[in-house]
Design goal:
The structure holds two protein chains of two kinds. Chain A is 32% helix and 28% strand. Chain A is an alpha/beta fold. Chain A has a domain of 116 residues: P-loop containing nucleotide triphosphate hydrolases (Rossmann fold, 3-Layer(aba) Sandwich). In chain A, strands 5-6-7-3-8-9 form a six-stranded mixed beta sheet, with helices on both faces. A three-stranded antiparallel beta sheet of chain A has the order 2-1-4, with helices on one face. In chain A, strand 1 and strand 2 form a beta hairpin. In chain A, helix 2 crosses helix 3, helix 2 packs parallel to helix 4 and helix 3 crosses helix 4. The radius of gyration of chain A is 17 Å and the shape is globular. By secondary structure, chain B is of the alpha/beta class. Chain B has three domains: 240 residues, no CATH class; 96 residues, abc type-2 transporter like fold, CATH 3.40.1710.10; 39 residues. In chain B, strand 7 and strand 8 form a beta hairpin. In chain B, helix 10 packs antiparallel against helix 12, helix 13 packs antiparallel against helix 16 and helix 16 runs antiparallel to helix 17. The longest helix of chain B is centred in the middle third of the chain and has 38 residues. The interface between A and B is medium-sized, with 22 and 21 residues.
C-alpha cells in the first residue's frame, strides 16, 4: 500500500500461527498520518489477529511491526469489550487510566464518560447494554488520547444513533493527523469512513489500496 | 511495582464485592480442616479384630478359685480394638477381604490349660504383615499383657489364701479335696505350751517354736515377693491434661496449611483465569503490565488474604489452648514466625494456583481444577511417606506438606531453626518453579 502521507505504524511481512493454524501470512500494512484504513474480509480472514498484532496485544510469529513514530499513542478497541464486568464504568476507566499512567485518571475518566455518553451510575459494567459496553470499550482505548486507533468491528452492537456518535468521536483522529484502522463487515462503513482498504482472505492480503481503487477493482466481488 | 499495586487494589475491590465467595473461601477450608483433623486423629483408633472362640469360653471363668469376668475384660479392650466374634471360616474370609485387620483364635482346651496351671495356654494371632498389621500386633500384645497381669493377680490372690491358711490355720480345698490345718501361729503356741509342760525338753520345743515363728515371718513376706515376681517392673500411669486431638500442634499445623492451600490455590487460579474471561489480558499485556507483574499481583493478593485468615485461625487456636484448662502453653512469642510461614506458604501455593489459572480455559474450569487438584494433593501429604512408593516424592512437589512442616516446627519444636529453614527453602523453591511455569503458561492466555 503506497501513499504520500508519513507512516505512523507498519506491519512488514507479519505472520501469526496458533498451533498448526495460520491466522496471518506475510501481511504488509501501513498506517499513515490522516489515514482511515478499513480491514475487510470474511470471518476468520485474519482481521482481528492483524489488529491485535498491530496493537501489540499479540506477538507476530514472523515479520515485524515498526512504530515509525514511537511517541505516538495507540488505542485498541477489541471486538469483545475488554473491561471488568464487576467494576463500574467509572472504575474501569480510572483503573486503566492508572495503568496507562494518565496524569489525572479520575478527571480523565469522567471526561470520557461524558464524551461517550455513559452515565456514571454505580452499576457494574457487566449489566450495561451491549452498546454501552462497546462505547466504554472505546472510552478505555481513548484514555491515552491516542494518535492511532485500532477498532475491531466496533459498531456491531450499536444502534444507528450510537454508530453515528461513535464515528464522530473516532474520525477526529485522522483529521488531526492521526490514523484509524477498523475491521468491519459493513461495506457501507467502508464507503463512509475509509480512505484506504485492505482485503484479507485466509490470512493473506489480497488487496490494498485507496477507497477509489477498491471501488474500481474486482476485489469487492470476493465479499459478495 | 506501581502496576502490581493498581492490580492489587482492583482485585481487592472485586473481592469485597463478592462476600459470598469470600465467606465460602474462608469457611470451607476451616470446616474441611476440622473434619480431616478428626479423621486423622481417629482413623484406625479402633481397628476391627476378629475373635474366634473355639473353646466356647463362658462369660465367667473360675481360675485358681477366683472368678474371672471374661466379658468385662473384653469390654476393656474395646477402647483399643473393636473385637468381633466370628466363626473360623468367616474370620479367615474377613481377614483376606480386609474387613478385619487381624484374627485372634482361642483354641479348644484353652480354659482347661489355664486352670491346670501346668503349661501356658496359647492364643493365635493372624494378621497381614504390613504397617497396620504390626500396629495390630502391638495392640494385641498389649491385650495379652493386660490379661496376663489380671491372671497373675488372680493366681497371687489364690496362693496368698493358702499362705494365710498355713499361717493362721483353718479349712480349705485343693484339687477339690477339703482339708484343715492348724497354722504356724497355733503350732508355735502349742510348741511353747509343750515346752512349759516338759522342762526337760523345753530347749528343743523353744528351738522348734522359734523356727515356726521364723517360717511364719517368712511366709508373711511372700505376698510382696509374689507380686514383685509377677511384675518385675510396674508401670505407674498418671493421666495428664495435655492438648487434645483438636488442639495438638500437628492438627493445628494441618488446619492452617489446609486453609491457606484452599484460599491461595483456588483464588489465584480463578482470579488469573478471570482476567481472560473478561477479555482484558490483551489490553493489559500490550505494555500496561508485564506478565510477571500480573502474576505477582495474584500471588501477593492470595498470600495476604491467606495470611490474614490463617493468623486469625492461629490466634483462635492459641486462645482455645489457653482457655481449655490444659497444661500446654501456646507459643505466642512465635506468632510472628508463624505469620512469615503463612506468607511463604500463601505465596508458594498461590504460584501453584496461577499455574492452574494460566493453563485453564476459563475461570470456572480453573476453579474446579484447582479444587480437584488441591484436595488429593493435600491428602497426599497425610499419607505416611514409607507406606506407598512415590508418595514422598509427589508430596514434596506440592507446597502443602512443607507448609505443615513449617507450622508444626514453629508450634512444637524446641529449636525449630533446621526444620524451618528446610521447609522455607522448599516453599520458596517450589514457588519460583511454579511461578516460572505460570509465566510460560501465560503465553496461552493473551488474546
Amino acid at each position: 500500500m503506497t501513499r504520500p502521507s508519513a507512516p505512523l505504524l507498519e506491519a512488514h511481512h507479519v505472520g501469526r500461527r496458533f498451533g498448526d493454524r495460520t491466522a496471518l501470512e506475510a501481511v504488509d500494512v501501513s498506517l499513515g498520518s490522516g489515514d482511515s484504513v478499513a480491514l475487510v474480509g470474511s470471518n476468520g480472514a485474519g482481521k482481528s489477529t492483524l489488529l491485535a498484532v498491530l496493537a501489540g496485544a499479540l506477538a507476530p510469529t514472523s515479520g515485524r511491526i515498526v512504530h515509525a513514530a514511537p511517541d505516538r499513542q495507540i488505542g485498541w478497541v477489541p471486538q469483545r469489550p475488554a473491561l471488568y464486568s464487576r467494576l463500574t464504568a467509572l472504575e474501569n476507566l480510572e483503573h486503566f487510566g492508572r495503568l496507562e499512567r494518565v496524569r489525572k485518571p479520575a478527571a480523565r475518566a469522567r471526561e470520557l464518560l461524558d464524551a461517550v455518553e455513559i452515565a456514571s451510575d454505580p452499576v457494574p459494567a457487566g449489566v450495561l447494554s451491549g452498546g454501552n459496553q462497546q462505547r466504554l470499550n472505546l472510552a478505555i482505548a481513548m484514555l491515552v488520547d491516542p494518535d492511532i486507533l485500532l477498532l475491531d468491528e466496533p459498531t456491531s452492537s450499536l444502534d444507528p444513533r450510537q454508530r453515528r456518535r461513535f464515528w464522530q468521536i473516532a474520525e477526529v483522529l485522522p483529521q488531526r493527523g492521526g490514523a484509524l484502522a477498523f475491521a468491519t463487515q459493513h461495506l457501507s462503513e467502508v464507503d463512509a469512513h475509509a480512505s484506504h482498504v485492505v482485503l484479507l482472505e485466509a490470512g493473506r492480503r489480497v488487496f490494498a489500496g485507496t477507497l477509489a481503487a477498491w471501488n474500481a477493482s474486482s476485489a469487492l466481488e470476493s465479499l459478495a | 511495582m506501581r502496576s502490581v499495586r493498581f492490580l492489587l487494589g482492583k482485585d481487592t475491590r472485586l473481592l469485597r464485592r463478592s462476600p459470598a465467595l469470600l465467606l465460602a473461601l474462608i469457611v470451607y477450608p476451616l470446616v474441611v480442616a476440622v473434619l480431616v483433623g478428626l479423621v486423622v486423629r481417629y482413623a484406625g483408633e479402633q481397628p476391627r479384630v476378629a475373635l474366634v472362640d473355639l473353646d466356647n469360653i463362658p462369660s465367667v471363668v473360675e481360675v485358681g478359685g477366683q472368678e474371672f469376668d471374661v466379658d468385662a475384660l473384653l469390654d476393656q479392650t474395646a477402647e483399643d480394638i473393636e473385637l468381633v466374634r466370628l466363626g473360623p471360616d468367616e474370620a479367615e474370609r474377613a481377614l483376606r477381604a480386609g474387613d478385619v485387620l487381624a484374627t485372634i483364635t482361642i483354641p479348644d482346651g484353652f480354659i482347661r490349660a489355664l486352670r491346670g496351671m501346668f503349661r501356658s495356654p496359647e492364643l493365635r494371632l493372624d494378621f497381614n504383615s504390613d504397617l497396620l498389621g504390626s500396629r495390630i500386633l502391638n495392640r494385641v500384645q498389649a491385650l495379652v499383657f493386660s490379661i496376663n497381669r489380671q491372671l497373675a493377680e488372680t493366681y497371687i490372690e489364690a496362693n496368698l489364701e493358702y499362705v494365710d491358711l498355713l499361717t493362721d490355720g483353718g479349712s480349705g480345698t485343693f484339687a477339690g479335696n477339703p482339708f484343715d490345718v492348724i497354722g504356724l501361729n497355733e503350732a508355735g503356741n502349742r510348741l511353747r505350751r509343750l515346752g512349759a509342760e516338759n522342762p526337760e525338753l523345753a530347749s528343743e520345743f523353744d528351738e522348734l517354736a522359734t523356727f515356726v515363728d521364723e517360717a511364719g515371718l517368712a511366709l508373711g513376706a511372700v505376698e510382696a515377693s509374689l507380686r514383685a515376681t509377677a511384675h518385675p517392673i510396674d508401670l505407674v500411669a498418671v493421666g495428664t491434661s495435655g492438648r487434645d486431638a483438636l488442639l495438638s500442634t500437628l492438627v493445628q499445623a494441618f488446619g492452617l496449611a489446609l486453609t491457606i492451600a484452599f484460599i491461595a490455590v483456588i483464588l489465584a487460579a480463578g482470579s488469573l483465569a478471570a482476567e481472560r474471561d473478561e477479555n482484558v489480558l490483551g489490553r493489559l499485556l500490550r505494555g500496561l503490565v508485564r506478565p510477571s507483574e500480573l502474576l505477582a499481583s495474584k500471588v501477593v493478593l492470595v498470600a495476604l488474604l491467606a495470611t490474614a485468615v490463617a493468623t486469625i485461625l492461629a490466634v483462635a487456636f492459641g486462645v482455645l489452648v489457653e482457655t481449655s484448662g490444659i497444661d500446654a502453653d501456646h507459643p505466642w512469642e512465635r506468632l510472628p514466625l508463624l505469620v512469615v510461614g503463612f506468607l511463604l506458604a500463601g505465596a508458594s501455593l498461590g504460584a501453584f494456583g496461577t499455574l492452574v489459572g494460566s493453563l485453564a480455559r476459563d475461570a470456572r474450569t480453573a476453579t474446579l481444577v484447582a479444587l480437584l487438584l488441591t484436595l488429593p494433593l493435600m491428602l497426599l501429604g497425610l499419607v505416611p511417606a514409607e507406606s506407598v512408593n512415590g508418595v514422598a516424592v509427589a508430596s514434596d512437589l506440592f507446597p502443602f506438606s512443607h507448609s505443615v512442616d513449617f507450622f508444626d516446627a514453629t508450634l512444637s519444636d524446641a529449636d525449630p531453626t533446621g526444620n524451618l529453614l528446610r521447609a522455607a527453602a522448599w516453599l520458596a523453591g517450589l514457588g519460583l518453579v511454579y511461578g516460572a511455569a505460570s509465566r510460560l503458561g501465560m503465553r496461552r492466555l493473551a488474546v
